[in-house]
Design goal:
The chain has 85 residues and is of the alpha+beta class. It contains three helices and two strands, in the order H-E-E-H-H. It has a domain of 58 residues. Strand 1 and strand 2 form a beta hairpin.
Amino acid sequence: MDQWLQGWREGVVPLRQKHGFRVDGAWVIWDENKFVWILSYEGSEDWRKKDEAYYASPDRKKLSPDPARFIARSEEWTLSPISPG
C-alpha cells in the first residue's frame, strides 16, 4: 500500500489534474488493504471519453512504476450529487 500511495501521490494525482480531473478525497482501509478515492470532472466532455483519453495519453503510459501493477481489483461508480434537504 505504501508503494501504491507514493506512486498515486507523485504520478497519478498530478497527471489526473493535468487532464482536468479533481481529487475530492481519498481514504485507505488499512485492515483490508483497500484504497478508495473520489475523482470528479466538470468539463464539457463526457466522463467516459475524458477518462479514456487519460488512459490513452502518452503521459499515463509513461508512469513508472505503472500504477496498475498495484491494483488487484477495481470498482467504479458514477455518483450524482443530491441536496441533503
